[in-house]
Amino acid sequence: MSIGGCDLNTFATRLNEVLTLSVPVRTPEKLFGRERQLEKIQLALHSPGRHVFIYGDRGVGKTSLAHTAASLVQSSDNRPITVSCDHDSTLESVIESAINQGQSRMQVDRFKTSATIGVNTAFVKAEARFDERDISPKRSIVNMAAAVEALNYLASNYSDNTVIVIDEFDLIRSDEQRARFGVLLKQLSDGDVSVRIIFTGIGQSVSDLIGGHLSSQRQIEQIDLERLHWTGRQCIVESAFEYFGLEIPSVISDRICALSDGFPYYVHLMCSKLLHECYMAGEVVTTVTRPLFMASLNAAVMSAEETLRSCYEMATWRDEHMHHILWAMAEGADLNRKKDHIIISYLQVMKLLSIEPLTQKTFDSRFARLRQENHGAILCHALVGKDGVRPGWYRFSENMIRGFVRMQAEKCGIILDFDRQYSAHTASIRTAAVKGVYNPLSSVERSVARLRRDDEKDGEENI
Ligand SMILES: Nc1ncnc2c1ncn2[C@@H]1O[C@H](COP(=O)(O)OP(=O)(O)OP(=O)(O)O)[C@@H](O)[C@H]1O
Ligand SMILES: [Mg+2]
């Protein structure tokens, strides 16, 4: 059947079968490009006393990896338990939710015996309150010891191999509460409690999330989840278009992969909008075309996650020039960018638009505003260390925003180069080796850069 040959309901159902835009992936067949990480998690969770911590950027695919890994390690007699944290979560409240979820899923007969065991023995000693009048009693966990006991109870009664996913750990506001989970893992290991826990959290490191000294303990397998690599991105595109029997030219699929910046959400978003355009096209589509792609980009930007749209909107609604500065910021491969290099990108953008660039002074003042709250604080200083900020280096406040800015630029016909490495020579040499090409700055750009430095003296000339 051609893509346009079915009704809207059938199309929507098929689309959701192949693209999971708003829900995490749960099965290995749909989780692309994470084979290595899955293997690492499986190995870790088979080793007694070990748990996993998946950390990385927002939207990079942490929950999907956690759910998929959990489904592989959890024994088939029950489903993995999943708990999401919030700002006020405590160790007790999180474990309580896990236990209650486990209890509600346990078979009634199995539950009756096990609940009695739980009450008569360690549960009471551990000061856990337990309401026997209730058919499906809710356990109240009052301290760390009760949490350990409750998890022990779950391990022996829920399933042969019980996996708990503790998602969005970074949301817990209290440093103290987060650190207590490190202590819990140690106690689970000491007490030989055989539940397996997979944590996920937005962050640069586990030590940011649970505190320095606890993060390095041997109970934790750390998974630093990077943005999805090229092959993973391509697999998502290919599987979606193959499913609908459509040809997608490599220039278009490559562009989707590049614009996505390695965030699978964007790949799903662009693919689903493009498939929708193909579905709505007047004539039968067998091969995706550039006009369809451009129309789909427009739709993708319009229906992207609210947080991304509002951040971009706050930065740009007052002033047209802010778009250009942000597009310039999204060029190149480096996430941390030096202001000199951003200016080179900016000049290129303005050349493509045939618009006169801002003067140095006006550029500087607008650029500074992009770090302010009333502009969504869309940019921030990069390379911030213990000794303070390294001046002149900037980044998007969240890496995920860059993909959205790239889509905005492309939608307006500005084709940015995402491969160019502006930073240290070592980086350029590395790209040359990997890609077999080296993209030096053009002589025009070089002379502009030189000119710009001259301008720094009086600061009023065009940059
Ligand atoms: N490896 C992958 N292959 C295919 N799709 C993926 C992959 N990883 C994630 N996705 C998709 O990308 C989107 C975001 O994934 P997910 O929710 O797992 O990210 P996250 O890091 O948990 O995000 P957040 O930080 O917002 O919690 C989802 O739509 C999911 O279906
Ligand atoms: Mg998540």
Automatic annotation (TrEMBL):
Keywords: DNA-binding
Extent of the signal sequence: none
A Pfam family: AAA_16
Keyword DNA-binding annotated: yes
Source taxon at top rank: Bacteria
GO molecular function, one term: DNA binding
Residue span, AAA+ ATPase domain: 48-224
DNA-binding is among the record's keywords: yes
SMART domains documented for this protein: AAA
Protein name: DNA-binding protein
